Amino acid sequence: MVQTLGKARIVSGFGMENLEHAQFELQLREYREKRQTLRLQQRRSRLAAWLLLTAAFGIPTLILALQLSAGFSVLACLALAPLLLILFQATSELAALPEHSSAGGELADEITRYLDRVPGVSQVAGAGFLNPLARTLTFDQICWESEDGRRILDGLDLRITLGERVALLSLQKLPARALASMIPRLIDPTAGRVLIDGRDIREGTLESLREEAIFVGGDDPVFDATVLENITCGRPDITRQQAVEAAKLVHADHFIRSLPRSYETALGEHGLQLDVGQRFRLSLARAAARQPALLVIEEPDAPLDADTKAMLDDAWQRLSDDRTILFLPSRLSTVKRCTRIVVIHNGQVAADGTHEQLVRSSEIYRHWEYQRFHPFREDRELN
Predict the structure, then answer these.
(1) Across residues 51-70, what is the average pLDDT?
(2) Which end of the chain is more exposed for a tag (fewer CB within 10 A), N or C?
(3) Residue by residue, what is the 3-state secondary structure of 77-135?
(4) What's the pTM value of the predicted model, to 2 decimals?
(5) Confidence band, pLDDT 50/70/90 cuts, at residue 42
(6) Which letter does DSSP use for residue 266 in this model?
(7) DSSP 300
(8) Strand, helix or coil at 61?
(9) What share of the chain is helix, strand, coil (3-state, %, to 5)?
(10) Long-range CB contacts (< 8 A, 24+ apart) of 104-113?
(11) Could you tell me the end-to-end alpha-carbon distance of the chain, in angstroms, rounded to an integer?
């Protein structure tokens, strides 16, 4: 269940609410049954601890009184001390049994808070179908604050045209990621508007928006399902052939076919575990199968092998055909391949241009590049 809660962004972004709701209800029912059994065991353990505690002190006291009345010496009576100690230790262990459920109680509180929370993004009454991006994506005077009250975006203006490959950068990851997350309405700005072809995206249904604007995270988890189900997300309108073609597009088909049962291999917590590069390509296949007009791609922070890097470079070229892509890049090679680089600093656009232009003209961009790809940094490769 905790694993399901952690995948809420993917569930909402890919319209998997009905599928996951059924699974969640099943898991929640099983959890409640286990909690009820645990509470019953706790009541029994408390009763047993009380009875044992009574026996631990009552019986020895009775025996001691009988021995003293029968003329036994005090020293002989002290021989009962080890028995008292053993009984006391056993009683303490039983009394501590309720503490073992504390982790479960904390988990229950977390789940309750999740279920009772007010959604940060909701669909307005009368929302209509939102057409795919055909001309421009516009951020108009965008403001956004983090949960701790910090102003992350402050009156940001940005206009992106159809077919561009744009790298969104910021010295800290949060500003760029927050802006990108507003496109499929994973979050909403506290002020300002996001417009697709001049129309505020809040006027459209979440379903129509997220069908054409998809966010792929750099470390998206897999679901406890088969490879095929991880790509289709249970949608009957996505055929097996379409899923295979999407996997081929992002160079995931080869490693999938090498798995024990190919596309029917079970993944997730109780199935086969994939490495970072494989999980990322599977997430890309999930997005590509829907053929969105607008794609937001966050590259993994974890190191990738040379083969995976080469496959991703080719995948970016393939995905760019007839599509607008915004990257949250972790590799310099991806930044250089973008037709445009936008640097966010102090809540606004601080630099906008190509890699060659910004290297010459933008101190903020040079600092960003130095910070991440300095040759003496051992934790990051140049490409």
Answers:
(1) 67
(2) C
(3) HHCCHHHHHHHHHHHHHHHCHHHHHHHHHHHHHHHHHHHHCCCCCCCCCCCECCCCCCC
(4) 0.74
(5) confident
(6) B
(7) P
(8) helix
(9) 50, 15, 30
(10) 104/35, 104/38, 107/2, 108/35, 110/2, 110/5, 111/1, 111/5, 111/28, 111/31
(11) 38
Query: Which is nearest to 241 in space by CA: 251, 231, 233, 255?
Result: 231
Q: Tens digits of per-residue pLDDT, 129-182?
A: 999 999 999 999 999 999 899 999 999 999 999 999 999 999 999 999 999 999
Classified as helix, coil or strand, 3 is helix
List residues bridging with 327 in a β-sheet: 167, 297
pLDDT of residue 56: 62
256: enclosing H helix or E strand: helix 253-257
Model confidence over 256-307: pLDDT tens digits? Answer: 999 999 999 999 876 678 999 999 999 999 999 999 999 999 999 999 999 9
Residue 202 structure tokens: 């809040």
Nearest C-alpha neighbor of 296 from the set 200, 189, 175, 184: 184
197: its two tokens: 């072809």
Tell me how far the alpha carbon of residue 305 is from its chain's centroid.
23
| The two three-digit tokens of residue 304, written as one number | 């990738």
Contact 215, 13 (CB under 8 A): yes
Spatial CB neighbours of 256, under 8 Å, sequence gap ≥ 6: 227, 247, 262, 263, 265, 282
- Tokens standing for 317? 């070229």
Tell me the C-alpha distance between 180 and 324, whole Å: 13
In this prediction, what percent of the chain has a pLDDT beyond 70? 72
Q: How do residues 206-246 score in pLDDT, each as one tens digit? A: 999 999 999 999 989 888 889 999 999 878 899 999 999 99
132-134-137 Cα angle (round to 5): 85
> Which segments of 273-331 does DSSP mark as H helices, in order?
276-288, 306-319
Label residue 131 left, alpha or beta by phi (over 0 means left) and psi (-120 to 50 means alpha).
beta
How confident is the model at residue 2, as a pLDDT?
Answer: 40
